[in-house]
Write a structure and sequence with these properties.
Layout: H1 11-45, E1 49-50, E2 53-54, H2 55-62, H3 65-73, H4 76-85, H5 88-96, H6 103-118, E3 125-128, E4 131-134
Helix pairs in contact: 3-4, 5-6
Length: 137
């Protein structure tokens, strides 16, 4: 007489495995919501820097119809003029000034960021292998 084999998974084991998968899914979902929430808070507070541009400045740019239109139409000269009018370049300089004390280096850094994002080359600069350098007078 053979003993009957126990079922591969009993009902309590299946329920425990299902609960475990549900717990992992819930944890992953909550962790994702937390990370997205932190990123949104940092972005809104202006503490997040994207491509060298502080998020507060990005938000200011996105709220300006003329700047947005010039950017998406690819008109780098009009965009640069508009960014200058609304004070974006100065705001970026204010943001980076504590880290870069030399005004010439600071100006070059800001113009490099703007060149990388918009393709605009300032009057005082020329492009050398994708890097802006001051023109020789």
């Amino acid at each position: 007489m053979k003993k009957s084999q126990p079922a591969r998974y009993s009902t309590p084991d299946r329920q425990a495995a299902t609960r475990s998968r549900q717990n992992i899914t819930a944890f992953a979902y909550l962790a994702g919501v937390f990370v997205v929430g932190v990123v949104v808070i940092l972005f809104v507070q202006g503490r997040l820097v994207i491509g060298g541009v502080p998020s507060g400045i990005i938000m200011e740019f996105l709220q300006d119809d003329l700047a947005r239109s010039a950017y998406f139409s690819g008109n780098s000269t009009a965009l640069h003029d508009r960014l200058d009018e609304i004070g974006i370049e100065e705001a970026m300089k204010d943001y980076y000034r504590p880290q870069i004390s030399d005004e010439v280096v600071l100006d070059q850094h800001i113009h490099q960021i703007l060149y990388d994002r918009t393709g605009y080359v300032g009057e005082d600069y020329q492009v050398n292998g994708g890097v802006l350098v001051l023109k020789d007078d």
